[in-house]
Amino acid sequence: MRVVSGIQPTGKPHLGNYLGAIVNYVKLQDEAEAQGGECFIFLADLHALSMTHDPAELTRNTREMVATLVACGVDPSKTVLFNQAQVPAHAEMQWLLNGTARMGWLNRMTQWKDKAGKNREGQSVALFTYPVLQAADVLLYQATHVPVGEDQKQHLELARDIAQKFNNDFCDEDAPLFTLPEPFIPPSAARIMSLRDGTSKMSKSDPSEMSRISLTDDPDTVMKKVKKAKTDPEPLPSEEAGLEDRPEARNLVGIYAALTGKTPAKVLSEHGGQGFGAFKPALGEVLVETLTPINARFMELKGDQEALDAILARGASRARERGIPTLDAAYKALGLVRG
Ligand code: TYM
Fold it and tell me: pLDDT-based confidence at 311, cuts 50/70/90?
């Protein structure tokens, strides 16, 4: 079992990142340890170059993201925790895979289409080739499980396509180089939606702070955001079918379910018939209960830059070591000798 996943150190991590991905980093890190497998979690700082960015902010966010991940339970003694920039094999592997990835495949990526909008010509080349770097990230470590939210599923499918084509083109049939990675997506938190609009996903890039709960929001802010969340005037239904066509209600029930480890059906069997005036405070409390210890730990870790840098340096050294055999084999398969 090889668990590999990444998160961009841009902006503050939010509830969608937490429920969609980080909770599963922790779960799979423990499963991998129990099975004698390995877990690699990294900050995708090279991916952050695909959009306009402020270098000083990127450095600061990278440290803060390490502190957040550790505060959420990613344990650097069990997980190889690092940032891409310190492991040149990611960029090298991307270049090798650029020969295999097809323009048509990248053109179909919905994230590319959404982020580029009508201005494709004005985008960075990095935004277009972003999914090839993502493929390199997971293939370099022979990932089997990749914990992600649903928005990353298409990128993982592309990683599989690249791996398969590379194996077909450059490897013997009985000795493929790359393992095909499987996305690991949580059922009730695959896509946490904005608190202001139940049809668009909760995102770091949404201009409204009220659209998302940041993992470092204090209890008053959390309560305020939940109380102001967009809803409809109907009470909660008693069964899941009643959530159809009610995206905001479905989102809040989904968040409650994911936080409490219950199914949405169970949440509705307990809260069905309640109006949002009663359900929102209950949801706010569960959120505050989850986030308070994370926040306390984050505040403790955040100030110790040296310790955070040491975690990254140690993780990077281990990642460099673990990635080399596959990188060497990829060079060799392509008829290149690595210097
Ligand atoms: P990023 O930084 O946008 O998000 C980090 C993780 O959080 C998940 N996520 C969500 N899940 C549920 N609901 C939401 N509203 C929500 N918003 C974000 C994302 O699916 C992701 O798992 N390209 C990736 C980073 C990356 C990566 C990788 C991931 C680079 N290389 C290799 C996996 C494997 C990204 O930008 O995630």
Answer: very high
Give the CATH number, domain containing residue 242. Answer: 1.10.240.10
User: What residue's CA is closest to ligand 1, atom 26?
Assistant: 6
* CB-ligand 1 contact for 212 (6 Å cutoff): no
121 shares a domain with 52: yes
Q: Does residue 13's CB lie within 6 angstroms of at least one atom of ligand 1? A: no
| Percent over 70 (pLDDT), the chain | 100
pLDDT tens digit string along 165-196?
Answer: 999 999 999 999 999 999 999 988 899 999 99
Residue 262 annotated as catalytic? no
Secondary structure element (H or E) that encloses residue 208, with its range: none
Q: Does residue 16 line the site of ligand 1, with CB under 6 A?
A: yes
Q: How many domains does one find in the chain?
A: 2
- Residue-level pLDDT at 24: 97
Whether 137 lines ligand 1, by a CB cut-off of 6 Å, is yes
Between the CA of 96 and the centroid of ligand 1 the distance, in Å, is: 24
Question: Going by C-beta distance under 8 Å and a sequence separation of 6 or more, which residues neighbour residue 2?
Answer: 32, 37, 38, 39, 40, 141, 142, 143, 144, 145, 179
Rounded mean pLDDT, 327-336: 98
On whether both 20 and 167 belong to a single domain, the answer is yes
Residues 275 and 155 in one domain: no
Distance CA 64, CA 59 (A): 9
Assess whether 112 and 132 both reside in one domain.
yes
0.85 surpassed by pTM: yes
What is the tens place of the pLDDT at every residue in 214-229? 999 999 999 999 999 9
CB 22 within 8 A of CB 74: yes
Residue 202 lies in a domain: no
**Residue with CA at minimum distance from ligand 1 atom 9:** 17
Q: Nearest 5°: CA angle at 187, between 101 and 276?
A: 125
Residue pair 207/213 in contact (Cβ under 8 Å)? The answer is no
Does residue 64 form part of some domain? yes
Mean pLDDT of the chain: 97
Active site residue 201: yes
